[in-house]
Write a structure and sequence with these properties.
Length: about 500
């Protein structure tokens, strides 16, 4: 692929800076790609082409006039449909907000625009981000770019698919149970869950709750770091946000031979599918030798399932209790299930969960005295049909909850550590496979640096290089909206 839309964000921005690529040219290439393939995957669900073209012409003029160019100048961006965007319909994947047009930008959107990014449109998400299968009753399902009948995961599934297919070079996302990392792994791109508060969120309902975060997605680690540099910051509206120390772009060079790495296929409790465990063993065989120390080890994660289940339910009570009471017909099964679960818990349950969360966190800090990073599979299963509301079983064993299959991701969420999903080839089913790299408390720069080093090392081998979907096949593919079950919650 040689179209401008297939350039990395870093390379596109370099060419823009030296006047070898006009922002308007890049935008038109992205729009052409959207129009050519989105019928097959349904990723860019609300489009803002007219305003984007106006912004691109203004970006062209700024270059011609010799003005200072911000770091994302002229780069098209997709905004997850959970993030409010001024003048552009923002539905949160819910019929309740089908016609909701915000009058101002959410903070992350405003910071991306201030850095020069040009909003092309909104990317699809499950209803209120629940369920990790990008499908809703407003826009329908988003298909995996490697097989549109399969799930793109979620909840940032639309962003992941838009990136993988070259619709845009950068996208925003969010993460509680792995919503940045899961779709990145399923679609062959990079998703980074930063330390809570690093990317401020003024919409976090429970302000001191570290579970939900905002973060960047892109096709490479460097592109991800470039976007992170622009959306990170301090915002007094977010109690967790503080001064950002140091830079993230470009990722610092790191000598892996000085680092100690722990490898675990399941954190000791995640229901990892056999095909995933086999792929993990295969992909990491060549990685281990790069580290000073590479051992099979995991922090003590006892109690993580229950802690996440309770704390997640409290979040859903805070955000969605009123909707489920006043408009139950317009609320999907995943959201209802979490609200109903939350109503069953007592104050004693909440206190127990928060106390146990602290204990798990402290056990992780002891673990990181012995290791610098943890490497795991990014997700527990190979992509399945998007018609499956959630995986009810893994290798024949029933899952605890509709989100139990996200345990590889929420093990990290519970303790608030930074983590990234790095694409490393495909699994035995021919579907993208991702490694999760987890850093120490506050180790965002380290995670990005280790990921960049591994990306460079693995890119030279087709078995571990980032997989790229067949755009020509997608162009000729039938429209996903013609598939049975396309629209709906379940």
């Amino acid at each position: 692929m040689t179209e401008p839309c297939d350039l990395t964000a870093v390379e596109a921005r370099r060419l823009i800076g030296i006047k070898r690529l006009a922002p308007s040219e890049l935008l038109e290439s992205c729009i052409a790609r959207i129009e050519a393939v989105d019928h097959a995957v349904n990723a860019m669900v609300a489009r803002d082409f007219d305003r984007a073209r106006t912004a691109a012409r203004q970006a062209d003029d700024a270059i011609a006039q010799g003005k200072h160019l911000p770091p994302l100048h002229g780069l098209p961006i997709g905004i997850k449909d959970l993030e409010e965007t001024q003048g552009l319909v923002t539905t949160f994947g819910s019929p309740i907000f089908r016609d909701h047009i915000p009058t101002e930008d959410e903070g992350i959107v405003a910071r991306a625009k201030q850095a020069g990014a040009i909003v092309v449109g909104k990317t699809n998400t499950p209803e209120f981000g629940a369920g990790a299968n990008t499908r809703n009753a407003v826009y329908g399902a988003t298909g995996n770019p490697f097989d549109p009948t399969k799930s793109a995961a979620g909840s940032s599934g639309g962003s992941a698919v838009a990136l993988a297919t070259g619709m845009v070079p950068i996208c925003t996302g969010s993460d509680m149970g792995g919503s940045l990392r899961n779709p990145a792994a399923f679609c062959g791109i990079v998703g980074f869950r930063p330390t809570p508060g690093l990317v401020p969120s003024e919409k976090r309902g429970i302000g001191w709750n570290p579970l939900p975060v905002l973060g960047p997605m892109a096709r490479t680690v460097a592109d991800t770091a470039l976007l992170l540099q622009s959306i990170a910051g301090s915002d007094s509206r977010d109690p967790l946000a503080g001064p950002v120390m140091g830079g993230f772009f470009p990722p610092h060079q790191v000598d892996l031979s000085n680092l100690r790495a722990a490898f675990t296929p399941d954190f000791g409790f995640a229901p990892t599918e056999r095909i995933v465990a086999a792929a993990f063993a295969d992909k990491t065989a060549s990685v281990r030798q790069a580290f000073a120390q590479a051992e099979d080890a995991s922090p003590d994660c006892r109690g993580t399932d229950e802690v996440f289940e309770i704390l997640r339910a409290l979040n859903f009570l805070s955000a969605h209790l009123e909707k489920t009471r006043t408009r139950p017909a317009d609320v999907g099964p995943n959201v209802r299930a979490n609200v109903e679960e939350g109503l069953r818990y007592s104050a004693a349950d909440a206190a127990r969960a928060m106390t146990e969360q602290t204990s798990i966190y402290r056990r992780w800090q002891t673990f990181f005295q012995r290791y610098d990073v943890i490497i795991t599979p990014a997700i527990t299963i190979s992509p399945r049909s998007w018609r499956e509301l959630y995986p009810a079983e893994i290798d024949g064993k029933p899952t605890r909850t509709y989100f139990h299959w996200l345990a590889m991701a929420y093990a990290v969420t519970v303790v608030g550590h930074p983590a990234i999903s790095l694409p490393v080839g495909v699994d035995a089913n021919g579907m993208p496979f991702g490694l999760q790299i987890v850093g120490p408390r506050g180790g965002d720069a380290l995670v990005l640096s280790v990921a960049a080093a591994l990306e460079a090392m693995l890119a030279t081998d087709r078995r571990t290089a980032r997989p790229i979907p067949d755009v020509q096949r997608l162009k000729a593919a039938p429209a996903i909206r013609t598939m049975d079950g396309f629209i709906g919650f379940d």
